[in-house]
Amino acid sequence: MAPQESIPVAANVLGTIGTVCWCVQLAPQIWRNYRTKSTEGLPAAMMLIWSMSGVPFGIYAIAQQFNIPLIIQPQCFCVLCGVSWAQCLIYGRKWRTWTASLFLMALLVIFAGVEIGLIYAIRPAYSRGIQWPVLLVGIVAFVTLLSGYIPIPFELLKRRGRVVGIDFVFLTIDFFGAFFSLLALVAQNEFDVLFGTMYALCCTIELSMVASHLIWLLRTKDIRQRAKEAGETFDESEEAVLWQSRGVDLESKFRQMFTTRDVPQEDDADSEVDSTDTVVAPEHFIPKTVPNAMV
Fold first, then answer.
1. Residue 246: phi, psi to the nearest 5?
2. What does DSSP assign to residue 128?
3. N or C terminus: which one in the chain shows less Cβ crowding within 10 Å?
4. What is the DSSP letter of 7?
């Protein structure tokens, strides 16, 4: 696809709305992490991969001469995802705040250097009609951004569809950011299929996460009602804890497949337990505080 020659007003307006959404989308998530001092349920890998995706995303947007809002968008997205990732290090892995902050700053400097260097490297060839370098960068951005969602199904399976640790205000703003960015591409003189597909998939994935949690709410309606009558929250109810613990922890199963260890001899009574089942530890499916997941 050739770079845009001119940008219609509608594309600029829609792109601006999408950019504003994607510039503030992670603010509720960052605030929630800070307020609860917990990132349980928020995959650190997702935040890091999303931050990394801002580099090829920004290169592609600049090379294609998108409207200014869509060029600014990946830079803000990269920084905010990086901040949320640093919070995962601080609250989840107990890093010191200064250590995580300096590490983040160094990483962002590297990202900026790589982006600037690649922009100047591919622009001359692109101006001569050689399009494959820009297309390759676009594909890398596409794959990287969407691969950030890979940990989400594992988290949902582990918690039987319950969304934990991910702020629903963030999901809502993120959805509208992708939606209006998609409309901005539609309003351009030439539609960018690669990024249009990416925005559409982002919208679909986020809607599926909301749908998953709504289904969880329906499935646990009676349990939550009984817990309320007993003066307990869902996470305090023994029945709820037992029900929630039946989730499938595929991550632990995969780790077991690639980990060899000596298994001590067990008593006959213990041997009756099926060793193939992976039990989800309560602290892995029950967050310390989940204000958005409670009804």
1. -85, 10
2. T
3. C
4. -
Rounded Cα distance between 229 and 240, Å, is: 13
1 by DSSP, 3-state: which? Answer: coil
Token pair of 20 as six digits: 């504003």
Q: Give the separation between CA 221 and CA 227, rounded to whole angstroms.
A: 10
CA 83 – CA 95 distance, rounded (Å): 14
Q: Is the pLDDT of residue 244 over 50?
A: yes
271 token code pair: 């041997």
* Pair of tokens at residue 292: 């958005």
Amino acid letter, residue 207: L
H or E element, residue 250: helix 250-257
CA–CA gap between residue 75 and residue 56 (Å, rounded)? 10
CB of 227 closer than 8 Å to CB of 233: yes
Helix (H, G, I), strand (E, B) or coil at 46: helix
Whether the pLDDT of residue 180 is over 70: the answer is yes
How far, in Å, are 6, 90, 291 from residue 158 at the CA level? 48, 23, 19
